[in-house]
Design a protein that fits this description.
The complex is a heterodimer of chains A (214) and B (199). Chain A has 214 residues and is α/β, with parallel strands linked by helices. Helices cover 53% and strands 7% of the residues of chain A. Chain A is elongated and about 100 Å long. In chain B, a hairpin with a 2-residue loop joins strand 1 and strand 2 (79-81). Helices cover 18% and strands 25% of the residues of chain B. The longest helix of chain B is centred in the first third of the chain and has 21 residues, at 3-23. In chain B, strands 1, 2, 7, 8, 12, 13 and 14 form a seven-stranded mixed sheet that branches. In chain B, strands 9-10-11 form a three-stranded antiparallel sheet.
Chain lengths: 214, 199
């Protein structure tokens, strides 16, 4: 009997964990993109780029999350019955896109969030996220933009302000530019001070030398 | 069957079932059974995710224009085969978030996302054969892209959930057609699909 159990365990372990796929567009799009956006109305390109950048930045801090924004049953293709069931859809989508490793996932619908594959602290933080301010894709994208840094932080990762999340109006690149300008200004000021001091020292020596010669 | 082997098989099944139960979160139980039965893994590797290598033979126009949608799903070796974005379009293409937002021109059929949604120019009547031609993949009663039908079997075709008896390539991409092509193990086909507005 022990031998039979051993064989059983080995057989079970030998079978690969599988991901499932179905006729929901998000599962196909998320194979190659970090975020699935609703069809209609389209989310403004600038906002898409902002959220994509934020999710990419989160990935760089070892928080590689994928996001599905679902604003209507159309966004679910052959699975319209999963509309307004964010946690159920997150569970299903997770099995579609997580191959042999965990893929942290956040599903955003107007009535709330669903998650899968998140670290426990981040999963707990999902329940404290404020509901999206509206039903359309733009509101869902804004909600996701604010959610990513919070979930990452809960999981112990600080996401740089690449996407300008948390409602910030300045992008990460402009912030970086300001820092660079300040550093350059300080260095320039320091150089000017050093050059002036050096000139003063040289002049002082020259004056002393000429006095001694007289 | 020897008792030891039978016990091993029974125990293996038990362990597998237990494993399934533990790896799927509790709310998976709420998933409709029909849905779980239809679901399949996405195949891994280039055979399951082949890029576009076909040519455009009809008029390639700079504007997408009015289109209707058809949906196609492919299964081989009990896995999903991805229909890529970019069929029926010419570079340079611009993409955003996994979707093509613009291309040099568009054929009478085009895929702008890798979801199986095929956009067909109003008034044209392309078929599944045209789609595979634009993709650059073979299609016959015993061949589905890079996959041969197992010996003694053929490519199974379903349109709106009903079996299609003629050649796979002859299926017309009519408005809101839900087309499923399979080789290998049987996969229960979908019968409906919610198409995006305007298609």
């Amino acid at each position: 009997m022990r031998r039979a159990l051993l064989i059983a365990v080995l057989v079970a372990l030998a079978l690969p964990a599988i991901a499932l796929a179905d006729a929901d567009p998000a599962s196909d799009v998320l194979l190659g993109a970090p975020v699935f956006y609703p069809y209609q109305p389209p989310v403004p390109a600038a906002l898409q780029k902002k959220l994509n950048a934020e999710v990419t930045a989160a990935g760089r801090t070892h928080f590689p999350i994928k996001i599905a924004l679902i604003s209507s049953p159309v966004d679910l293709g052959a699975l319209p019955t999963m509309f307004a069931k964010p946690q159920q859809y997150a569970t299903f989508l997770d099995q579609e896109i997580s191959f042999n490793s965990k893929q942290p996932l956040l599903v955003v619908m107007a009535n709330g969030y669903g998650s899968a594959g998140l670290p426990p602290a981040a999963a707990a933080a999902v329940s404290s996220l404020p509901k999206p301010s509206g039903k359309d894709g733009e509101a869902l994208a804004q909600a996701a933009l604010e959610a990513v840094p919070k979930l990452a932080e809960a999981a112990g990762h600080k996401v740089p302000n690449a996407g300008g999340g948390s409602g910030g109006s300045s992008g990460g690149s402009s912030g970086l530019l300001i820092v660079i300008l300040v550093v350059v200004a300080v260095l320039a000021a320091g150089t000017v001070i050093l050059v002036r001091r050096r000139r003063a020292v040289v002049r002082g020596r020259a004056d002393r030398g000429s006095r001694a010669a007289r | 069957m020897r008792p030891g082997l039978l016990a091993a098989c029974t125990a293996a099944l038990a362990v597998l079932l237990a494993g399934c139960g533990s790896s799927i979160r509790s709310d998976t139980a709420a998933l409709p059974r029909s849905l779980v039965l239809q679901a399949r893994p996405v195949g891994r590797g280039p055979r399951f995710q082949s890029p576009v290598s076909g040519h455009i033979v009809d008029a390639c126009r700079p504007r997408l224009g009015a289109r209707h949608g058809s949906h196609i799903e492919l299964f081989a070796e009990n896995r999903v085969v991805i229909v890529p974005a970019g069929i029926g379009t010419l570079p340079p293409r611009k993409t955003l978030s996994g979707r093509i937002t613009s291309a040099r021109c568009y054929s009478e059929l085009a895929t702008l996302e890798p979801t199986g949604l095929v956009l067909v120019r109003a008034g044209s009547r392309p078929t599944v054969a045209d789609l595979f031609h634009g993709w650059g993949q073979p299609l016959s009663p015993v061949r589905l892209g890079p996959f041969d039908a197992p010996r003694g079997t053929r490519v199974r075709v379903f349109v709106d959930g009903r079996p299609w008896r003629a050649a796979p390539g002859a299926v017309p991409l009519r408005p809101h057609a839900v087309i499923v092509l399979e080789v290998g193990p049987y996969v229960p086909p979908h019968v409906s699909y919610r198409f995006p507005p305007g298609t």
